[in-house]
Amino acid sequence: MKSKVTKGIEARKMLGVAVLGLLVLGGFVVLANQSPHTYTNATDGLPIASTAVNGQNTSMEVKLNTHLPIHIIEDYGFNLPGNGVTGGNGTADDPYIIENWEIDGNGGTYRIWIENTRSVYFVIRNCKLLNANGTNLDFPFGSGITLSNVSLGVLENNTCSNNSNGIYLVNSTNNIVKNNDLSSNLDGIMLVSSSNYNNITNNNCWGNNESIHIYQSGYNNVSYNKCTGNSMDGIYLGATATHNNITNNNCSGNIYGIQLDASRYNNISDNNCSGNNYGIYLEGWFSDHYYNNITNNRGWSNTYGIFLDHSAGNNISYNYFTSNIINSKGILLNDSSDNNAIAYNNFIGNYLGIYLNSSSTNNITSNNCSKNYFGILLASSSQLNNITYNYIYNNVETGIDVLSSSSGNIIHHNNFWRNNGAGRGVSGNYQAYDDAGGNTWYDYTTQEGNYWSNWDGNGWGTASAYPIGGGKASDYNPLSKPALPPLQIIGNANLSYYATLYGWAGDGTSGNPYRINGYYLNGNATGTPSASGIWVENTTAWFTVSNCTIRNVTKSTPFPFGAGICIRNVTNSSIEYNTVSANRCGIYLYASSKNTIASNNCSKNYFGIQSVLLSQFNNITYNYIYNNAGTGIDVRSFSSGNIIHHNNFYQNNGAGKGVSGYCQAYDDAGGNTWYDNTAKEGNYWSNWDGNGSGTANAYPIDGGKTSDWYPLSKPALPPLHIIGNANLSYYASFYGWAGDGTSGNPYRINGYHLNANVSGTPSAFSVWVENTTAWFTVSNCTIRNATKSTPFPSGAGICFRNVTNGSIEYNTVSANRYGIYLYASNKNTITNNNCYDNTYNGIYVYSASSNNTITNNDCSGNWYGINIDSSSNNTITDNNCHDNSQYGIYLSSSSKYNNITNNKCSNNSDSGIFLYSSSSNILSNNNCSDNKNTGIYIYSSSDYNRITNNTCNRNTNYGIFLRGSISNNITNNNCSANSYYGIYLASSNNNTITYNYFYQNANYGINISDSSTGNILHHNYFYQNNGAGKGVNGNCQAYDDAGGNYWYDNTTREGNYWSNWDGSGWGTPGAYPIDGTAGA
């Protein structure tokens, strides 16, 4: 609340405004005790220099000229001499300009004062307005800039300091106040007396009493202002300030961040209110309703995040107030703050998350009250509140505490995790407390209570199920998961209503559908089964039902006859990733067209999916349909034009193994397609005998109207993106993957068929996992056609990004842009995969991916077989990288400390192994033969590599080629029968080449050229290279035109073995002269 001193100052201002209004009405114009004077510093009264009329800032420091106070009355006043106008004619395109003035003076009531102008445009900018701080009651009470009864003004880039009011608007509309600096004023910016529809933006208001003050004014937009370090309010809305939009402001370091004092219908959203005593403060009168909308604000280190004091009827939603100081409250409803809606807020890390004190009939729903001392506290006869669907976890004390005659509250469907030190099992500490009594901790209608992380599953329906601390209450009906009751939605308007009620994301458009997501629904929770779970009818708006668990909807009458999910006369819906089990029908389509039914788990129903009565042109794909008593999919009654493919049918309708078993689907409508006609891929049937693919006999559908011509040999999986351990666990549960994510029992994504280009619409990935540390494998999958180049991962069959502990094994990965792609991923294993005919890389390891093991893979027909880019400490071993368009294995961009061993890199169109700017790697025991260019190519500062025991034979050019690389150790390699040289050095120095075997290379065994010096070459074996026979007179087997190289070991006095040395001249230059100009 405001101090008496502050309210006295406000009263003085309001009295002056009232006096002015009476005089104006009486036909008089009040002039202040100061009058404007002609400016004499230039011959015509204009400043010597001015900036452009368009108001654009420049980086130049503009020198300000002094001027006496300016007072302009009515439109003609802009054309009078000495009024400070520096340009313009008052039109929208060429407004009057008042700029570059410094107006100072001790005391006085104004610096620039404009009044009674409504039709001309003007700009006041780059002025410094100081010390208008007179203490008399004369209007405008000491203001830097005053607009009185004014429209169409722009006030920008001004400095207003040490005034009573920095900028003062009285009965002024449609003005812009932006980019001003206001400090050390009583009020930085003040709007009073129906100053409406103004835009106040990007101002810096600091060190004032109040930064921005709005009184009896509405419909103003106040946005992106910095209101910090003020002695009272960042932003203050006084009495009857209505319909103002206060958004995206920084209101920190004040006593009140934003204060509403008996103000109604304002929107306060997206503001940062931190480091205040009160982040947002609403004060009203007893029993009055104010209907303010307080949404999407955030703050930390406040004593109170949001404080309501006898303020009723407000909507407080989607705010985030956290890490507030000792004894702080996320939100406090105090003293008859009744009938407020408190929904979808985050109150985290406070002393009290939500605190109700003598406040009743509020709706507290879907808030996150976590890591506080207490989650929610009701005290002092806070009664008849509904507290539902809140997330309450890891609070030091109880999640909900009900005290002091606070009775009649309804508390259910809240989710409690590990509050008050509670562990697993009811023997742990209680997570809620109620010593008031008379409260109900479950819903009477559905007989569903709250979810408690430490409920042991016992005692359901009795007082011993979950006793509440305090001895006055129990949750008789704890939940095993968060829940939703059966829901019927009729029409677009009703869908929109429920979207608002439940806070569903989306707006019902194709680009932003409503999202009904993540619920648990038990259709038989009360013992009286329901005929529907989620039932939507008569809608055309776009919506999704996803990630819900719906079961036990078994009532056969009335319509929809026990359907877990039903759509009737619906278009534009998507039903995906739901688990729908133990219903009469899992998913039911009735007279509904152009919907998508994808990736649902429909099991242990009577029908898995049923489509009847002109349900047409629906896409039914990638559903898991198993162990249903009747058919997995049932299509009847003129329901034609549906596309049904890539679904997985297991043991429905009593089907066993082999096509002779019962059929798992029914279609008497005809005109439906049970396969994808583009990809020529159908569904997976557990009882297909493997015969007849491509014909009507492959898998005939009961009903006599159609067949699946192209059954799949493996279960189908759609392109799948997994983000984080929790998401990995979710998909493991949804798809029934074995494992628990530990090293001894990893999740197993096994045995799928993934075509990322079904129906001719390519995906950028098939399986993409990121940000996980849990252990998992992707194995025995057939993955192809991920060909979309954007966005990331740019067409990868399998992609890991920021993943550890993953394994990719025994997969066939083809016709993608990248077969397997590791990005910033460590400690993974890639083994026994067949990566062929991918556009770029069979296996691509990029962006500091380290300590991965890549072994026993076959990479052929790619651009590069294996590509290691900017990645180190990987092991690449026992791979077969052959017949690729460029390289078998390619290292680039400072890829260091990799171990490349026992790989076969042959028949590649360029080189077997290529190192580009990559140093300190080990290349050993690789077979790099029969390539079209070079066996091993070491290029461009690829230094300090150890190249040992490799076989580099029969390559079109060279066995090993070093270009622009130093200090490599090349030892024990076999470089024979190459079409040019065994080893070729160009611009490469200080390399050690020893114990290598050169046999029958068409040209020299070793060729050193292009200033390659300091190399040491000894104990190499040269046999019949360059056509050399027996005897020194035969052709020389080596060449050196660089010089400065050492063709023997100077310590042991041992050189190389030459099959055509004649045994003469040992110890002299004539022993074995090397070809070339160096005379080596």
Characterization of the model:
It is a single chain. The protein has 1080 residues and is mostly beta strands. The chain has 4 domains: 265 residues, Pectate Lyase C-like; 208 residues, Pectate Lyase C-like, CATH 2.160.20; 169 residues; 169 residues, Pectate Lyase C-like (3 Solenoid). It is built from 3 helices and 101 strands. The strands form 13 sheets. The protein has a 15-stranded parallel β-sheet with strand order 2-5-8-11-14-17-20-22-24-27-30-33-36-39-42, with no helix packed on it. A 14-stranded parallel β-sheet has the order 3-6-9-12-15-18-21-23-25-28-31-34-37-40, with no helix packed on it. The longest helix is centred in the first third of the chain and has 22 residues. The chain is globular, with a radius of gyration of 40 Å. The protein starts with a helix and ends in a 22-residue tail after the last strand. The N terminus is likely disordered.
Quick gist of this model?
Helices cover 4% and strands 37% of the residues.
* Helical amount: under 10%
CATH topology of the largest domain: Pectate Lyase C-like
- What is the overall shape? globular
Our count of domains comes out at: 4
Give me the number of helical elements.
Answer: 3
Rounded mean pLDDT is: 90
Task: Name the CATH architecture of the largest domain.
Answer: 3 Solenoid
Poorly predicted tracts of residues: 1-60
Spatial extent as radius of gyration: 40 Å
Q: What oligomeric state do the depicted chains represent?
A: single chain
What's the main sheet like?
Answer: 15 strands, parallel
Strand-residue proportion: 35-45%
Q: Helix/strand/pairing class, anyone?
A: mainly beta
